[in-house]
Write a structure and sequence with these properties.
single chain, alpha/beta, abc type-2 transporter like fold, 2 domains, elongated, transmembrane helix, ABC2_TM_bact-type, ABC-type transporter activity
Length: about 375
């Protein structure tokens, strides 16, 4: 029995592994942190039926029938009119930037046609770049608006079809899911590969014992960082070409905007990712730790960016937390340019956010690298 299995030897090995695992603080934190993150995200933040979706109202007359209908739409919980007195030009700019999901247009003769019983019509323009985000709100439109007019006129026996609601799903009228998913996959693929590969940049040197040779070189921390991250920009370029070609030729995703704007956004995003990976490599001591930290960052970024679940469906605190991830801003940029034909001015806010990420992560990586030299 002792030749094949000794409980004393087995116990000694178990004690040794337990002590080693306890000393590996990153692994221990991952074992506790990942389940907690998953519970918080899936339990509180994820909602596939978004409510309080921002909307703009274009109604020149603002009569009592219009106010009754708008109030009824807000009571459903799906609509939140952030611009109740917008002009047509203002509403167009807001939906193109993504500030609102809906634009409700009520014609100037709406009230007169209601009083005459002359089948009034309203237009609902919906941002359909994410088909699942607005589906619940669209399904309630006709019934809620009609009931509101019936209560206002006092005619509860009116024909339910008296009110004509025209729904215009913009940017993705067929509701093709691939138009939303494939551009987002570009960001997800780049994030996973770029961060993981560069996160092992310095840890590989430490494990191979070549870190001393690197430190003995007459190179500044900035030069070392650039030497580590620039080659991976070429790897990212190859991935971008492959994904964009597949998006166009296999999935037929429209590219309405300028290719130069798309490439500019991708370049800034990839630059932020490789610098983030380099920052992780200055924290991790082994390649396993670098991989663990990468996945620890990847999970909440994937869940809170709006890739898997509608961003508008998350509570306010989850949306605020999602703003700290570069993927959130890149998804807004790439979907706006590819599906909406947005120009640089329209996506300037997302570009600025990604640029800020680049500067902040670069500063943190340089400061952290200097500390690791001590």
């Amino acid at each position: 029995m002792s030749r094949w299995l000794s409980f004393a030897r087995l116990w000694a090995l178990l004690v040794k592994e337990t002590i080693q695992m306890r000393r590996d603080r990153v692994t221990f934190a991952m074992m506790i942190g990942i389940p907690l993150v998953q519970l918080m995200l899936f339990g509180f933040a994820i909602n596939t039926d978004p409510k309080e979706l921002p909307a703009a109202l274009v109604a020149p007359t603002q009569d009592r029938f219009t106010r009754a209908m708008v109030g009824a739409l807000e009571l459903t919980g799906y609509y939140r009119f952030v611009a109740p007195d917008a002009t047509a030009a203002e509403a167009e700019e807001m939906i193109s930037r993504g500030d609102v999901v809906f634009v409700v247009t009520v014609p100037s003769d709406f009230g007169k046609r209601v009083e005459k019983g002359d089948a009034p019509t309203i237009l609902i323009e919906a941002d359909a770049t994410d088909p699942s985000a607005a589906s619940g709100a669209i399904s309630t439109l006709g019934t809620v608006a009609q009931q509101a007019l019936q209560r206002e006129t006092g005619n509860t026996s009116a024909d339910p079809a008296a009110l004509s609601v025209v729904v215009h799903k913009r940017y993705n009228p067929e509701g093709v899911t691939q138009y939303n998913i494939v551009p987002g996959l570009l960001g997800v693929i780049l994030q996973l590969t770029m961060v993981m590969m560069t996160a092992m940049a310095l840890t590989r040197e430490i494990e191979r014992g070549t870190m001393e040779n690197l430190l003995s070189m007459p190179a500044t921390p900035l030069e070392i960082m650039l030497g580590k991250v620039v080659p991976y920009l070429g790897v990212g370029a190859v991935q971008v070409v492959v994904v964009l070609a597949a998006a166009r030729m296999i999935f037929a995703v429209p590219m309405m905007g300028s290719l130069s704007v798309i490439l500019l956004g991708i370049f800034v995003f990839v630059l932020a990712l490789v610098i983030l990976g380099y920052l992780i490599s200055t924290v991790a001591r082994t390649q396993m730790q670098a991989m663990q930290l990468t996945f620890f960052f990847f999970l909440p970024s994937l869940m809170l960016s709006g890739f898997m679940f509608p961003y508008r469906g998350m509570p306010g605190w989850a949306q605020a937390l999602g703003e700290i991830f570069p993927l959130t801003h890149f998804l807004r940029l790439i979907r706006s340019v590819m599906l909406k034909g947005a120009d640089v001015h329209t996506v300037a806010q997302s570009l600025l956010a990604l640029t800020v990420f680049v500067l902040m992560l670069s500063l943190a990586a340089l400061m952290r690298f200097r500390r690791t030299l001590d």
